[in-house]
Design brief:
mainly alpha; two-stranded antiparallel sheet
Length: 169
């Protein structure tokens, strides 16, 4: 008798599993009526038939559409500059220029503050005169184009070099 009971229990579990999978798809595909009512009049304003599966697909497609639209907005507007690691070359160049301007302004402020201290010291007679040095604007070389040597200059240079070599010997 116990062996028959075991077989029946096993066959019931097997049937239950098959029954569960088929009922799952039935529940997912079963259509529900979704409707909206006006609370005051209890009149049906809007209604439609919907299954769980179609609702899932609607939510999924809405999420994908929202992700695509958000990506397009970020990519095609200046908002992308706020993303880490993404800076336009124009903005990078502007940042470098601003850093250079800031450095030169700091140097000018230091020179002016030293000048003001020097003037106030001279007026009060307390502090000695401090030498003020301005930023060296000549330190940055201007673009110098290399002059091409003419044939006459090349001949002159060769003669001069030969004469100098002969003098040393």
């Amino acid at each position: 008798m116990p062996t028959d009971y075991g077989r029946n229990q096993y066959s019931m579990k097997k049937q239950k599993k098959q029954f569960d999978s088929s009922t799952f798809w039935k529940k997912v595909r079963f259509k529900y009526k979704l409707y909206f009512l006006n609370e005051n009049t209890l009149e049906e304003v809007f209604s439609f038939r919907l299954s769980l599966l179609s609702g899932f697909w609607a939510v999924l497609s809405f999420a994908i559409l929202l992700i695509i639209l958000t990506s397009l907005v970020i990519i095609n507007t200046p908002i992308r500059n706020y993303l880490p690691g993404y800076i336009d070359s124009e903005i990078r160049q502007e940042m470098i220029e601003n850093a250079l301007k800031t450095d030169s302004l700091e140097q000018i402020i230091q020179v002016q503050s030293l000048y003001i201290e020097n003037i106030s010291g001279i007026i009060t007679g307390n502090s000695p005169i401090v030498k003020i040095t301005e930023p060296d604007t000549l330190a940055v070389p201007a673009k110098v184009e290399e002059l091409k040597k003419s044939d006459a200059l090349k001949k002159f240079m060769q003669k001069y070099e030969e004469e100098e070599l002969n003098k040393k010997k």
